[in-house]
Amino acid sequence: MKMVLRDEAYNQIQELCLCGNNLVLQSLYDDAISKYQEALLLVPENKKEWETATWIYTALGDTCFLKRDFERGKDYLFDAFNCPGGISNPFISLRLGECLAELGEVDKSKEYLLRAYMLEGGSIFQNEDARYFDIIKEEI
To answer: Quick one: which of 91, 95, 89, 90 has its CA closest to 75?
Structure first.
């Protein structure tokens, strides 16, 4: 059963996330994280059952990755991975694999980087540091 947010809450969440996205573009990562966390508070309990939470957790994880806070990024991306559609989202797998690689969990990172490759192909690595693709190139 697909769960639907009230329009008012959904609109507030979109506004906060858009603001967060704009802050990321300015490299104001802490401020962006605050906006995303504020948006996440508007998602009803059992957050991992809501599609909206998938993209909020993804934004949080991506922003933490950009900030080089790989531990928090990993946690948020695991949350996103376990939300609706997360397991089939190549970007979530990519960023999760990258965070794990940065944390020295190379074997575990390989699983998620391979998943990203299987879902999207090599193009998903196009704008990423080549060393992430190097982790999986022997496997493909």
So the answer is: 95
Cα separation values, 37 from 40, 42, 53, 56, 85, Å:
5, 9, 10, 8, 20
CA gap 94, 34 in Å, rounded: 23
Round to whole Å and give the CA distance between 58 and 53.
Answer: 8
The residue-averaged pLDDT of 63-86 equals 98
CB-based burial, 51-85: b 16+ in 10 Å, e otherwise: bbbbbbbbbbbbbbbebebbebbbbbbbbbbebbe
Read off the pTM. 0.93
In the predicted structure, residue 2 carries a pLDDT above the cut 60: no
Which burial class, exposed, middle or buried, applies to 35 when counting CB atoms under 10 A from its CB (0-12, 13-18, 19+)?
buried
